[in-house]
Description:
Blueprint: H1 3-13, E1 16-20, H2 27-43, E2 48-51, E3 77-81, E4 99-104, E5 115-118, H3 125-134, H4 144-157, H5 168-178, H6 184-192, H7 196-208, E6 210-211, E7 216-221, H8 223-229, E8 251-257, E9 263-269, H9 275-280, E10 284-285, E11 289-294, H10 300-317
Parallel strand pairs: 1-2, 1-3, 3-4, 4-5, 7-8
Antiparallel strand pairs: 6-7, 8-9, 9-11, 10-11
Helix pairs in contact: 2-3, 2-4, 3-4, 4-5, 4-6
Amino acid sequence: xxxxxxxxxxxxxxxxxxxxxxxxxxxxxxxxxxxxxxxxxxxxxxxxxxxxxxxxxxxxxxxxxxxxxxxxxxxxxxxxxxxxxxxxxxxxxxxxxxxxxxxxxxxxxxxxxxxxxxxxxxxxxxxxxxxxxxxxxxxxxxxxxxxxxxxxxxxxxxxxxxxxxxxxxxxxxxxxxxxxxxxxxxxxxxxxxxxxxxxxxxxxxxxxxxxxxxxxxxxxxxxxxxxxxxxxxxxxxxxxxxxxxxxxxxxxxxxxxxxxxxxxxxxxxxxxxxxxxxxxxxxxxxxxxxxxxxxxxxxxxxxxxxxxxxxxxxxxxx
Length: 318
């Protein structure tokens, strides 16, 4: 029996299904979580299927979370999408159900769950959800709403097909979603849309970007800057890719100060592998897109030096 068949059997077995995703959710986390929920609801309308997690400002057009009581986890199937490790799961009640399934496309460093469907070669977790539907022999099927959410997840994690994770299979899956009649142009516009504060933050990033000797780049965004610009931490998602547009930049990091004085690190790369560096700082992720945290600003310089070393090693290997 394949892993996909085991997951589908569990979906059929349980009357209550609760779907989680990772903290600080991005379009793929929301798209895979919400897309899977819609697929299950369409196939089994008698089941209770709910999605949980903190609201994400600016992405509520993808899905709206449900209110779920502690009691609802009794005898429930819990599925976690797009989340590499347990500390990143949004809502700590993920382990309160009867059975736990992990569906993910990050390196499987934390093999949690009773059933694991992990494919790091996939462009996104949303792509894996479509593959799960296709492996169900017709027991699951796409709806227009599921396709809209899954499309948002795929274009989010592929940078609208600009990133190396895009494969021929990704494009075939995307075509399948488009065939459901979704308004892809509208989703693309929503993904590209920024507000005035985020536009000002974009300008701040370019004006304050620092470039190291070996073409790594970084910018530090303090809480005071966010307040002055009227921006929020969630808005920094829109500026993560900006340094990569500069010719010659190999890898980069956006340091975002949190309210408690810690720093959230958004780490990206064009080619050098940066997820091993992220792991040194309590994070992880994909080879070219990872996250980590620092306890305070004192660790920034050391991190930048290591990021520069990553860029230097890549340059030497070329």
